[in-house]
């Protein structure tokens, strides 16, 4: 303000000194002085003045875009846009081996992929496909473990496997267990290009439909299921960044090797795509991207969920049992390059597994595919080199 006062006084002094001149000269001098006076009057207050400071408007959230085509709806599995027919048709779940001899076809199309240890610390995968209308080669398909059936139940899926140990007999023989078994189906075939005598059984959409019709399975969801919300999803125009959690951790690499010492699977966050790309270093095989042999695509996921789970070893052969429900245990949720601790709960065979943050709120997943890693209680995994164990 002192500078402004000096300018104003200088202007007034010039006016007084010129007051003795003629009217014409006075008018000319006043014309010169006048802009200076106007500049002083119009000068704004300093930017940090509390009286003049205005709050910056909050950025507007863009409106949610509608379906790309008429008749499309949000998928109950991924929240992506799918046809009503796909969304109203029961999914399938398929048991897929995860060894160096496995020749996996169609796996990149899985909307949800489960990974869990079986005997010998080898992991086996269960892939859930919401749209299974166009497979000409799917698999290879391997044997059942009973705990996978309970995870399949919660999707009301038709479960596909190739036999299994006697531990599955109780749950597989239940009247509500709708499954397709390669031991009894005539629609599986053995491929000669896999180089394996065991990891070589496949089927296709036509064969699945033939078994569905033969066994009398309904492709419509059971009563009441279609009204249930399995996952909560954040809207596309306001994704879940996990930045609202003060204890969220950076998660550029999620390494499951300590929990899966034979598969050695891990995930690397791809900042360009916003997805977690999956890699494996199987015992006896080279380290590299986990790729679908049908199309050469690497498996990638928007959401990665870790579930610490109570387990028991059943016998000397190493067959395992996992507690799939009637429990509340801890885990982790990763998306968009960050992670938070969660607890998970499943209350019944057909009930969805729910995931909650440490404030007790159900978490929101982001639109896209989800990877679920089942980890034995007491095992750990690594996030950016830091070891994380169950609490």
Strand and helix layout:
Elements: H1 2-17, H2 23-42, E1 72-74, E2 81-83, H3 84-87, E3 92-97, E4 112-117, E5 123-129, E6 138-139, H4 146-153, E7 158-161, H5 169-172, E8 179-181, E9 189-190, E10 201-203, H6 205-215, E11 249-250, E12 253-255, E13 266-270, E14 275-280, E15 288-289, E16 300-301, E17 303-309, E18 311-313, E19 320-322, E20 327-335, E21 338-346, E22 354-356, E23 370-376, E24 380-383, E25 386-389
Parallel strand pairs: 3-7, 4-23, 7-8, 17-23
Antiparallel strand pairs: 1-2, 3-5, 4-5, 6-10, 9-10, 11-21, 12-13, 12-24, 13-14, 14-15, 14-16, 17-20, 18-19, 20-21, 21-22, 24-25
Helix pairs in contact: 1-2
Question: Care to describe what's here?
Answer:
The strands form 5 sheets. Strands 3, 4, 5, 7, 8, 11, 17, 20, 21, 22 and 23 form an 11-stranded mixed beta sheet that branches. This protein is globular. It has helices spanning 2-17, 23-42, 84-87, 146-153, 169-172, 205-215, and strands at residues 72-74, 81-83, 92-97, 112-117, 123-129, 138-139, 158-161, 179-181, 189-190, 201-203, 249-250, 253-255, 266-270, 275-280, 288-289, 300-301, 303-309, 311-313, 320-322, 327-335, 338-346, 354-356, 370-376, 380-383, 386-389. With 391 residues, the protein is an alpha+beta fold. The chain starts with a helix and ends with a strand.
């Amino acid at each position: 303000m002192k500078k402004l006062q000096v300018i104003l006084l200088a202007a007034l002094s010039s006016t007084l000194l010129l007051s003795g001149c003629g009217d014409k000269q006075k008018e000319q001098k006043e014309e010169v002085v006048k802009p200076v006076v106007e500049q002083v009057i119009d000068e704004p207050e300093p930017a940090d003045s509390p009286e003049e400071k205005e709050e910056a408007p909050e950025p507007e959230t863009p409106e949610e875009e509608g379906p790309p085509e008429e008749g499309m709806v949000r998928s109950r599995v991924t929240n992506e846009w799918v046809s009503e027919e796909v969304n109203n048709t029961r999914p399938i779940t398929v048991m897929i081996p995860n060894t160096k001899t496995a020749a996996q076809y169609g796996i990149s199309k899985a909307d949800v992929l489960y990974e869990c240890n079986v005997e010998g610390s080898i992991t086996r995968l269960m892939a859930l496909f919401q749209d299974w209308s166009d497979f000409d080669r799917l698999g290879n398909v391997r044997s059942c473990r009973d705990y996978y059936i309970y995870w399949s139940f919660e999707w009301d899926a038709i479960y596909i496997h190739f036999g299994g140990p006697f531990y599955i007999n109780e749950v597989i023989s239940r009247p509500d267990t709708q499954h397709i078994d390669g031991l009894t189906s005539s629609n599986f075939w053995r491929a000669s290009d896999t180089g394996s005598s065991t990891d070589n059984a496949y089927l296709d959409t036509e064969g699945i439909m033939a078994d569905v019709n033969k066994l009398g399975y309904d492709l419509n969801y059971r009563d009441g299921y279609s009204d249930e919300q399995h996952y909560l999803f954040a809207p596309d125009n306001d994704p879940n960044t996990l930045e609202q959690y003060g204890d969220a951790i950076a998660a550029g690499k999620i390494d499951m090797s300590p929990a899966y010492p034979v598969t050695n699977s891990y995930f690397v966050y791809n900042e360009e795509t916003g997805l977690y790309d999956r890699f494996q270093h199987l015992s006896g095989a080279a380290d590299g991207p986990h790729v679908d042999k049908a199309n050469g695509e690497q498996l990638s996921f928007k959401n990665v969920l870790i579930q610490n789970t109570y387990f028991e070893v059943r016998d000397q052969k190493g067959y395992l049992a996992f507690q799939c429900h009637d429990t509340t245990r801890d885990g982790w949720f990763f998306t968009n390059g960050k992670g938070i601790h969660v607890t998970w709960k499943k209350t019944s065979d057909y009930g969805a597994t729910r995931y909650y943050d440490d404030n007790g709120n159900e978490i929101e997943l982001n639109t896209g595919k989800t990877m679920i890693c089942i980890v034995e209680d007491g095992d750990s995994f690594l996030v950016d080199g830091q070891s994380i164990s169950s609490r």
